């Protein structure tokens, strides 16, 4: 059972769900410098046909005619030699391309192409390097203001001290201070120490995304900087819970995508087809085994950018962020839905007329199967949002409008 809105740390467990994980490793386990190579010998050309032997009884040409033929042959040879020298000199002076040369082609692409989009976004993406206790981990982030603010995942900075190193796409490097972090939303803000020539990203509207929209994931997977992968939005508002015993529990109502995301992509931007940031790449799902050995399996999850903007603005302004709460203790119901086990008076749920024992089956039309579904969908919304709730009380089906609020912390 998990408290929503009482300030306690959530602890909902989802049985049967594979462990979700993230980690940022600096090594690329797939690079193989020992792959076999072979040198291919050129094919042999066929031998030329032999000329027949001269006939000793064939009549001879007169001596004068033979001399004339020899003179003409000599002049031709001389002319050919002079021409060859002139051609060689012209080639050396650049009059024509040398054998094997490649004429450079400008990497220009039309506006609106994928290459043009990538070229516009990459200068705003950074690689974040965290050095702690002799170990180095790598994550990603993106510039959101000209004075040096950078958004990333909180879990990228888990082992960080007061500062981290930030590397830009053009090779520049700077230290950055940690402005603040919010472990529950998995978001954090850095401030670059040398904010010279920074290019902030353009923001999109994650509430306007549709399943099937094209997206691009930017970052440094497996410490491979300036990497871009592409895919589509696979699902929206995917409820996820991460963390277990002794770990930070986090809830996401995530954008699901099939763009390849691996360790090191954490904190990088998810960008729409117009080059606008719509999410923060945060979670991949594993089929099991050690976290450090898992990789992309065609499923990745990003925090919606509307939620990220709201949380990071609070962090920049106050150093912390508030949770959005429903005002009830919740647990799964055997018949499906989310049972309200306690509804404190004065909270959002109580004000809307909900009581302990009610079973909430949908929020804004999205069906709820487990407690994590309700918690994740509430956390994605801003305090003050009004949500439509379908619930059952006894055998009656009812509707209520709940105005969500911020927690008191």
The portion of residues forming beta strands comes to: 25-35%
Write down the overall geometry: globular
Oligomer: single chain
Number of individual domains: 3
What would CATH call the architecture of the largest domain?
Beta Barrel
Tell me the major beta sheet: 7 strands, antiparallel
Amount of helix: 10-25%
Radius of gyration: 34 Å
- Overall mean confidence score, pLDDT: 80
Write down the secondary-structure element order: EEHHEEEEEEEEEEEEHEEEHEEHEEE
Low-confidence sequence ranges: 1-65, 85-97
CATH domain fold name of the largest domain: Thrombin, subunit H
What is the helix tally?
A: 5
The CATH homology group name of the largest domain: Trypsin-like serine proteases
Please write the CATH class name of the largest domain: Mainly Beta
By DSSP, the count of extended strands is 22
